[in-house]
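Justification of resources, computational component.

The compute hours requested in this renewal are based largely on the per-chain cost of generating structure records like the one below. Each record pairs the submitted sequence with a full structure-token output. That output is archived, and it is also reused by downstream analysis tasks.
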Amino acid sequence: MKKILIIALFSFCFLFAHSQNGDTLRVNYFVQSPFAFTENNSLKGIEIEVLNEYVFWLKSKKKMNINIKYKPYNSLSDLMEAIKKAGNNNLGLGSVQVTPERAKDVDFTCPYLKKVAFCVTNGHAPDIKIESKDEIMRALGSMEALTINNTTLNKYAMDLKKKYLPELKISYHSDEKKILDEISKNVLFFGFVDAVGFYTYLKNNPSKFIKMQKVLNQNKEEIAFIIPKGSTHKQLFNEFFNGPGGFKSSQNYRFILEKYLGTYMTSILAVN
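The structure output for this chain reads:
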């Protein structure tokens, strides 16, 4: 009983100190639309708005007086390294995919978004109706896959080669925009690209004639915020997002995603 009272007293003092004195949450973010970017001198994006909801929750539910200090990064690897070495009150935003390799160096919050990869072809390419060897060979058998090395996108292309297309030729590019540009110009190219990247590309290039082959889309990965090992923000964010009546079940969560991704993409990428 005495031990319980001591723990309760410590917790009260911790929250009271936060509420009275305030604390600085250092938000390190990778500059990338539509996740975190500056427009008209205003910082906005999916991750920025989810973060703002989290901070509001800390203030209203946990009585923590949080001040935010932002630091931008133009390199995801630099952001990862910064969080790896950072103190407890740091949080990283970078549309970071949850992987076992990264989890060795940093902690992840619970996922706030699914990471879906679309299989994309030229708009004139035949449609793949079912995932079968004959159907995939008919549609993609004479094509060349374009991908980015050392990514899950490349893994999906290699899996397709191993399972259905043993003679598939694979070429490597530096980014998804180049892949989509090439696919839009040549009916004999296809590739896997990130769903958000596909949406952004079409939004910025409405005249490009490309399409996704839905039966080959991949939805096995997830995106989360990153935090230093042992940070208290892991438990707090998970309670905010996944707890009873948590943010993922709120109208505001869907509103934020629809604001930046539209209704259709939200239906695909939202965490249930």
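Confidence is low (pLDDT under 50) at residues 1-21. The longest strand covers residues 113-122.
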